[in-house]
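User: New here, please read:
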Amino acid sequence: MVDPKIKLYDAVRIKGLSQPHVFESDCFNMRQPRVGDVAYVIEIYEGPPGYELECSGENGITEWLLAFSPEEVELEKVAGSANG
């Protein structure tokens, strides 16, 4: 089940990853996601539950854009997110 406190467009910090994410380098994925990364929730899925997250570097270029199930990732809402 997705965390009801996390809303679309929130900034979230990755606190934990249950396993290495399946990763293929392409135009949207320059590197693996890491604990400590800050990403934005760009979609919330209900069936099956999950999140689409995008992490960008300081230059604004997407570093990774991936979907996670709630079991794969532990998220923490970043203070000052779009939805408070």
About this structure: The beta strands are 11-17, 38-46, 49-56, 62-68, 73-77. The chain has a mean pLDDT of 90. The CA atoms of residues 55 and 77 lie 14 Å apart.
